[in-house]
Design brief:
About 1% of the residues have low confidence. The longest helix has 82 residues. The chain is flat and about 145 Å long. The chain has 21 helices and 19 strands. The protein folds into five domains: 171 residues, MutS, DNA mismatch repair protein, Chain A, domain 3; 99 residues; 202 residues, Rossmann fold (3-Layer(aba) Sandwich); 82 residues, no CATH class; 39 residues, Roll (SH3 type barrels). By secondary structure, it is α/β, with parallel strands linked by helices. The chain starts with 5 loop residues before the first helix and ends with a strand.
Amino acid sequence: MGYLPKKTLEDLEFFEVTEQIADFAITPMGKASCSALEPLMEQEAMLKELHIVSEYLSSFDNDNRIPNHGFEDLSPALQLLKIENSVLEIIAFRNIAAASQTVNTLLLFFNKFKSYYPSLHLLKGEMVVNKEIKKEIDNVIDRFGEIHDNASERLHTIRKQIQAIKGKIAQSFNKALSHCQNLDYLDDIRESVIENKRVLAVRAMYRRKVKGGIMGSSKTGSIVFIEPEATLNFSRELQNLVFEEHEEIKKILSQLSDYLRPQFDLIEHYQSYLIHIDTVFSRARYAQTINGLLPIFSDKQELELINAYHPLLYRSNQLENKKTYPQDIHLGPESRIVVISGPNAGGKSITLKTVGLLQLMLQSGILIPVHEKSRVSWFGSIITDIGDNQSIENHLSTYSYRLKNMKGFLKKCDHNTLFLIDEFGTGSDPELGGALAEVILEDLYERKSFGLITTHYANLKLLADELPAMLNANMQFDDKTLEPVFKLILGEAGSSFTFEVAQKNGIPFSLINRAKKKIERGKVRFDATIAKMQKERHQMAKTGKSLKEKENKFENESQRLKILNEKLKSKLINYQDLFDHNQRMIVLGNKLNDLAERFFQNNKKRPLIADLLRLVESENAKRKRKNPAQAKKNREVKKEVAIEVNQKLVSIRKEKKKNKATVTTSKPKPALDLKVGDKVRIVDGKSVGSIDAIEKQKAIVNYGLFTTQVSLDQLEIAN
């Protein structure tokens, strides 16, 4: 059995976390349950709760949102059901029916999506979908909270009789009203309502002439309110029927209560299940706000927290738009105890509380704000000694109280204990207190306990260097500004920067020098050496960071140049392919032109077709067969290159056209005297044709195989 005193929860402000979680609950019972959260006593129960909360958290980011779990308190109804022959009120029945339906909805949902939410699916235990409870209640009570007419045959009969009597009351009253109105017995208001009964407003002078029961009079006494005699008889009959209806309803509700009494355990299970779901929902919502997650659980005893945040500080800074600094800490078989040193206000205590509070949260089934690769384990006992522990009630000084705490530590600590001690050994003479703290720390070390302590004592720092499974650490400090960096450095002790901080805060330099002379020279040198090491480490860290950035920059640039080189190489190959292709097209075009010229001369089709077929077969013999995918890829590459070349050609042609236009403007081209039959070609063209006709500054040019229309100013005489 572990040891987890209430003082540990108070020291680490665990109850503030549970209060923040309670704010997310949607029911009063859920809020109370969240406020009462405490660390679990078994590892298996802890892991089960953490998986349940982690699954609920994942539901916020997927399409399979978990249905609403809201419900009303069933405790009053459960208390009544324990009493024999007790009858529940209608509102209690409705709450039970609603809770039953909510539970059924959740059970059906988790059955359907059990692959998404396996732990939540198992949370139901042996509970199954039960539709009978809601069905029985709905058969008696409608959605408006009224008893159905057909809840029993007798109730149905009574209500029919009540409706009939009400009809007779209305009929008899209207008859009396008409009669008295004709006799002019009534006041101008004619009628009124008293005690839910219609009454005649009779003038006082005629009250003896109207038979019936007097129900009252006006303030002035001029009007007497009378219920007609015939109506009065029917009203008495109605009262009897209403009483019978009330008795029958009591009987029906009594029978329904008796039906639910054997279902007591199930209804109680409904309430506990829904309260549990509400606490799971609240913990998941809280995890969402602090970026909580489920870290890796290790089989061996270790604690490796990466980018760990103090949840209370994180939320507080979040509301104020301030930055929160994460911490990295490692406790394992090789470093069971970490001795944290360094100046005050550097973050030592926050680091201590962060580790302790996160471990308490884990063991209470609450997700924690750390990196997903963090590793955690179970500690049976978690004990702390944090803050000023003067005990006014017991008339104990700080040191006496801390010694009493140490006595408890030495009794309870074992290999399954996590201890956290702030300012270890303070409160007494530094030499004597330091010596006692050293032997206590040695004893805790021998017990193979895990823990963190903060201290300014040099002998404890030296002890941490000497023992193999104990490690020094310090909170990094900027040696120039003397401001905390809030980063824990494992493996080296920290300087207290006592004289440096004093100098920064305006203490005269002469006094600081006198103080240095009053203490042991070796201690000053030791502290100065530690401070120097910290400065050098800080400088090395900055240099390493700078070199790493430059290395990354050069690596990125090298990668970019490599990619660019490959692109250029590929583009050159594609340009060469395009050039070779175009050269073949030019040769082929010249051959076709020769065939066309020969046909133009002899006008023989057969030789032309034969020559064309030979040319096609000759070209096809040069082609290589390629698979469809490769051919398609080649076509796409050629198409891209061709588009790029065409774009460049278009820009070159535009430039040439612009230059030609400039030349033309400066030197106007002389007009040619062209006539039908002249041999011509298009300016800068090679094909020669003859003019067949000239119409409106345009010539019809015959090229043998085809004719085309060209503007005269685009033609020149072919030599």
